[in-house]
Every structure is written in C-alpha cells, then in structure tokens.
C-alpha cells in the first residue's frame, strides 16, 4: 500500500530531479576524492604535509569543461539574445 501512495505519476518529476541532484553530488564527491590535490586518502600521502604541487593544482582547476567554455560568450540562448538585442 505504501508503494501506491508514493509511486504516482505526479511524483515522477520530483524523483527525477532529486535523482539528478544526487548524481551531481556523487560525481563531484568522486571527482574531489580521486583528482583533488588537496585531498589525500592514503596515510602515506597525508604524512607528507604541505606539498608544493602547482602543476597538479593547475591540472585540477583547469579541467576540460572549463577549457571548453573559456573563449565562449556567456549566453545560454544566443539566437534569442540576438533577436531581442538587435535594433534592426
């Protein structure tokens, strides 16, 4: 009976949006644990103290998505922006 209460078609978008949010959080968590130079999971790496690893930090901060959008204009819908902002 409890499944009938929660699994109605009206609730599907809520489940989908919560699922996407949890997926984004999990992706960021895995990214930080695996590639962040400031996060050290192993005991041997934690005992090293403060590291001067600028190359690794640069690689982490300048990831592929940031490189892809670096030289693009910050517009979500350029054609609509052009339509409303063009005086002609």
UniProtKB/TrEMBL annotation:
The chain crosses the membrane at residues 12-30. InterPro entries: B12D. Keywords: Membrane, Transmembrane, Transmembrane helix. Pfam families: B12D (PF06522). It comes from Stylosanthes scabra. This is NADH-ubiquinone reductase complex 1 MLRQ subunit.
